[in-house]
Design brief:
- The protein is of the alpha/beta class and 296 residues long.
- It has 8 helices and 10 strands.
- 40% of the residues are buried.
């Protein structure tokens, strides 16, 4: 929650600080109950994860097996220092079964999360991230870990962990007038740095922060922002190698293609043909850079 002194007089007249405090308390109680729930298979999942000698990349999957399949396929090719593990936040049982099959096909650990009690997009995602952190990361204690959105495709060789050799966190920054955070879809942490802190991956709208924003106080507020390096975000024009049409796509850290907005509002249906054609081209041996409009 935003510092009390940062609320304007008009906001006090509207009783906004009291409303924000109530919502935060409600969310924390709700979250505490969710995080304490157990699921079948967690012990075997922990045993398998403990055997990896790489940092963990935590993927919260939701209803999109095709995108996850592409992500895992490209990760095998372009990520060498991160072991992806999948936490399924899907509501549809058929989708959960399909996502589990995708993970099995790629030999990637899969764990179905407890049924999420909320339909609020940001809250649901934050609950899932918190469950994964408190029940798996804290048990495994990896040297480093990252949260990667399920629609982030590593189309070029990439490592967000390299930056952790020089700083305790790395990712795509999201800043407001009062605070800053790392975007929940691409954020990496040195575990030793955050282990003793009370991490919370819920949003903090009162501070102008999205999912993961509650980590402002325990983590980000103690860091000197001007001394940190962050991932970049750009839009590239690419050419559909089969239709010949051009499209603008979001790139993160110059190496990750972010499909974007494919979970709760299912915009993926509008992007499916382009994504499938790009995936087909890469599978046939095309290089991602050759698909840029300027290179075509």
């Amino acid at each position: 929650m935003r510092e009390i002194s940062l609320y304007a007089g008009r906001e006090w007249l509207e009783m906004l600080p009291l409303s924000d405090a109530f919502k935060q308390l409600r969310n924390d109680i709700w979250l505490r109950n969710y995080v304490h729930q157990s699921v079948n298979g967690v012990d075997a999942f922990l045993t398998r994860c403990a055997g990896f000698d790489k940092g963990l990349g935590l993927v919260v999957a939701f209803e999109q097996p095709w995108a996850l399949d592409w992500q895992l396929q490209m990760a095998r090719q372009n990520i060498s220092d991160m072991q992806l593990v999948v936490f399924d936040n899907s509501r549809n049982t058929d989708m959960r079964a399909r996502i589990a099959q995708v993970c099995a096909a790629h030999d990637v650990p899969y764990l179905g999360l407890p049924e999420n009690p909320t339909r609020h997009v940001n809250r649901s995602h934050g609950f899932a991230m918190n469950w994964a952190y408190h029940n798996v990361v804290k048990a495994i204690k990896p040297v480093s870990f990252a949260f990667i959105d399920h629609d982030m495709i590593p189309v070029l060789p990439s490592s967000c962990f390299k930056s952790l050799r020089k700083q305790p966190v790395y990712g795509l920054i999201n800043a407001s007038d009062w605070a800053w955070q790392l975007w929940a879809g691409y954020c990496a942490f040195d575990y030793a740095h955050v282990a003793g802190r009370d991490l919370n991956f819920l949003y903090d709208f009162s501070n102008g922060l999205d999912t993961g924003g509650r980590n402002w106080k325990p983590v980000y507020s103690h860091l000197k922002r001007e001394q940190l390096a962050f991932a970049n975000r750009e839009f590239w024009d690419v050419v559909d190698p089969y239709s010949g049409g051009q499209a603008s796509v979001e790139m993160v850290d110059d190496t990750w293609f972010h499909i974007g907005n494919i979970s709760y509002n299912d915009v993926f249906k509008q992007k499916a043909e382009l994504c499938q054609n790009l995936a087909k081209a890469l599978a046939s041996g095309r290089d991602w850079l050759s698909l840029r409009a300027s290179a075509a």
